[in-house]
Every structure is written in C-alpha cells, then in structure tokens.
Amino acid sequence: MPHTASRYLAEGPRVGIRHFTYGDGAEFTARARQSKDLHHPWLYPPDTANAYTAYAGRLIEDPTKAGFLVCDKDDDGAIAGFININNIVEGGFQSGALGYGAFAHAAGRGLMREGLRLVVGHAFGPMRLHRLEINAQPGNTGSIALARSCGFRLEGFSPNMLFIDGAWRDHERWAITVEMTG
After folding, report:
1. 42 falls in which pLDDT band (50, 70, 90)?
2. What residue segments make up the domains of the chain, in order of their start?
C-alpha cells in the first residue's frame, strides 16, 4: 500500500520514518519472510499475522517503546526496514536502547543509515531523549558498521548479554548522546 509523505515524522532525501500501524502487518511480515537469510542469526522479526499484531501492539501501546518504519520514498513508501527504541527511561536518564533491521530488498543501499539518522534526530528532538544505545553482537558487522557510520561510539563489551537463537550472546555497546550530534 503506498504511503504519503504527510504520514512521515521526519524525511530525508530518500526515506521517511513513521510509526508502526496494525495495518502494516501484511507488508511487514512478507518482507520479514523474504529476509530470513539476511537476518539469521541476529534477528527474528515477526513473520506471521499474529506475531506482528503482538509485536506492533507493544510498540504502539507501551510508553517505554517507540517503533519506526523506514520507508523508501522512491518506491511509493515501501517498508525498507525498522528501527525501535526500547527500554525508554525518562527523568534523569532520558535514554533508550535501539534495535533495527533492514529488509533484504533494501539492504546495502544506505536507506537504513538515512533512517537511523532521522530516528536519532527525532529521539533527541521531539522525544527529548539524551542518550541512545545500540547493543550488537561482535560478528554482526553490518549492524556495527551502521552504528559507527551514524556517529555512535563504542563504549564497552557485555558478555552473555542477550538470549538469541538458543544461547546467551556477547554484545558490543555503542552509544550516542545529544551532545555528540552537535
């Protein structure tokens, strides 16, 4: 389904970002199924209608989460990927943890870099966050390259941090603060 620019929270030259809707389920899950080889073993986005409804519901309804779809403006707003801010903490912390994934048809085209920059700007602007963190498995070179290319700095290493694909996995911690975006 084509998406109009008026629905974007922020736009760059090639992408716009917008929130998830329940109506995005068919496109999102089809793209997730087409991208299994790209995502394995790092990521498992929902690929069925029921799984998407539960996933989108958490992003839509939980105030400690914000989900953004990265939409390709040159392809009638097709979903190119997604970026979620999880574990949003307000007060003195004003922080969140990012998770993201490109879909196979859009991978390697720079769309996620543009989208991540838009999400960072939105998080530090209207959302009034101060810090964003990305936790990436050391072997996930694509995720680490994206973090680095968007100005995130390596802050540390967390052994056995997250349970993914049947085991506890080590992660590198990358972060950016509003001061770093100048």
Report:
1. confident
2. 5-181
- Single pTM value for the model: 0.93
What separation in angstroms does the CA of 152 have from each of 52, 145, 148, 173, 175? 29, 10, 5, 9, 5
CATH of 5-181, one of 1.20.58.480, 3.40.630.30, 3.40.50.2300, 3.40.50.300: 3.40.630.30
Query: What's the rounded Cα separation, in Å, for the pair 68 and 5?
Result: 14
Distance, in Å, from the CA atom of 114 to the CA atom of 71, rounded to the nearest integer, reads 10
pLDDT in tens, 6-22: 579 999 999 999 999 99
Cα angle, residue 116 at apex, residues 113 and 117 outer, rounded to 5°: 85
What's the rounded Cα separation, in Å, for the pair 30 and 182? 38
**Does residue 41 have a cis peptide bond before it, meaning omega lies within 30 degrees of 0?**
yes
Supply the DSSP string of the chain, one letter for each residue: ----GGG-SEE-SSEEEEE--GGGHHHHHHHHHHTHHHHTTT-----SHHHHHHHHHHHHH-TT-EEEEEEEGGGTTEEEEEEEEEEEE-TT--EEEEEEEE-GGGTTSSHHHHHHHHHHHHHHTTT---EEEEEE-TT-HHHHHHHHHTT-EEEEEEEEEEEETTEEEEEEEEEEEGGGG-
